[in-house]
Amino acid sequence: MKLFHFTDLEKKAESILGSHPFTYIKSGSGDEETLGDNIADLRKWKIRPKFLQDVSKRDLSISLFGKNYKTPYLLAPVGNLGIVHPEAELAVSRAAKQVGVPIIASTVTSVSMEEIAAEAGDRWFQLYCSSDMDITLSFIRRAEQAGYGAIVITVDMPALGFRASDLTNQYAPFKLGAASGNYFSDPVFQKKLACSPSKDFQRAVDEQLKHLFAPGFSWEDVAALRMATDLPILLKGILHPSDAKKAMEFELDGIIVSNHGGRQLDGCISSIAALPAIVDEVGGRIPVLFDSGIRKGADVVKALALGADAVLLGRPYVYGLAINGEEGVKEVLDNFIYDLDATMATAGVNAVSALDRDLLVRT
Ligand SMILES: Cc1cc2nc3c(=O)[nH]c(=O)nc-3n(C[C@H](O)[C@H](O)[C@H](O)COP(=O)(O)O)c2cc1C
Ligand SMILES: CCCCCCC(=O)C(=O)O
């Protein structure tokens, strides 16, 4: 593959994927104000290097929930990967395992969470809470049994964002079953459906879509899920310090500052603009992870210096998957690790744990 720049990666993926699948991945909601701000606002922060530090050895490691990881990267949950590559989440899982990066498997994967677990190393499960609590609880039990190490509840999708490009293209990969791996294999869902999804595919997809979103999901439901599992629970999609505070009050274990890569609420604050106030509110009591807009090592350094404990990669690894399957994802990860290491050395920082706000200025 040998593509080291995000723009080249994106161009190459575009030439391989059909126009509608590519647009689904690349685009944001509305007129993409927030999608653009995620990138632009990261660039407003500049690194202010300090030299003559001993950077002969660099330590990229972090620790989360009592476990050590070689790098501060995780793979963000991305649904519908069956439209990107035939080996979809399985290729992603194998690549991440080779590199030692944890994955966060989406609820809406094209294969089941058990099939993913069989290929993956460290893994967390991302939960779109269903409007049907029995299905939600079944997903949590299955994740526990399949060895997932944490539950990530995505809170920024009470409904699908206004995705103008997909609406224009009339493109909805979930209607093709690309997001049905966990639903179709779920015993509770199957019982409610009262038929095999393979026998009545269209009805099964329609039924899944009815259950998929839970616009009524509230903090009381979060409290119920807190009681339902001993796994660490993180909330993904936090942008307001008061929600971070509430997450701690509800005894949750972590949060992910994210605006879903600009795919949900257009016009909302960029992820990097939201980060500092949330880090201040949390005050180190629970881990704060970050995503939306990470495209290169300098972006990672900025997010970590502003107080994130780890970052999630989204679209970059999806493009790697499109270009060259498992090997493509691995190359993207290798490049991100190399870039971070070089960025830290040239900024005069020898450990991720030494990154702090003093390294940055906002222009
Ligand atoms: C094609 C696509 C599908 C996604 N699917 C999910 C999902 O199933 N669950 C979820 O919590 N986030 C999902 N996300 C959001 C990502 O987890 C992540 O927040 C986002 O990609 C970060 O932005 P970036 O790609 O610009 O770095 C998806 C993002 C993309 C691009
Ligand atoms: C109706 C299915 C929605 C799948 C959502 C996947 C996702 O999070 C995305 O951003 O796209």
Structure description:
The chain contains 15 helices and twelve strands. With 363 residues, the protein is α/β, with parallel strands linked by helices. It has a single domain, classed as TIM Barrel (Alpha-Beta Barrel). The chain is globular. The relative contact order is 0.20. The model has no long low-confidence stretch (mean pLDDT 97). Bound molecules: flavin mononucleotide and the ligand CCCCCCC(=O)C(=O)O. The ligand CCCCCCC(=O)C(=O)O binds at residues 79, 108, 160, 174, 179, 209, 212, 260, 263.
What are the salient characteristics of this protein?
45% helix, 15 helices, 363 residues, Aldolase_TIM, oxidoreductase, alpha/beta, TIM Barrel, L-lactate oxidase, binds the ligand CCCCCCC(=O)C(=O)O
Can you give me a brief rundown of this structure?
The protein is of the alpha/beta class and 363 residues long.
**What general form does the structure show?**
globular
What is the H/E string? Answer: HHHEEEEHEHEHEHHHHHEHEHEHEHE
Strand order of the largest sheet: 4-11-10-9-8-7-6-5
Mean residue pLDDT: 97
Would you give the CATH topology?
TIM Barrel
Rounded to the nearest angstrom, the radius of gyration is: 20 Å
Helix content: 40-55%
**Poorly predicted segments:** none
What topology emerges from the helices and strands here?
Blueprint: H1 6-16, H2 19-26, H3 33-44, E1 45-47, E2 62-64, E3 67-69, E4 73-75, H4 88-99, E5 103-105, H5 113-119, E6 123-127, H6 133-145, E7 151-154, H7 164-169, H8 181-184, H9 187-193, H10 201-212, H11 219-228, E8 233-238, H12 241-249, E9 254-257, H13 271-282, E10 288-290, H14 297-305, E11 310-313, H15 315-347, E12 360-362
Parallel strand pairs: 4-11, 5-6, 6-7, 7-8, 8-9, 9-10, 10-11
Antiparallel strand pairs: 1-12, 2-3
Helix pairs in contact: 1-2, 1-15, 4-5, 4-15, 12-13, 14-15
The structure holds flavin mononucleotide (FMN) and ligand LXCWX6NK.
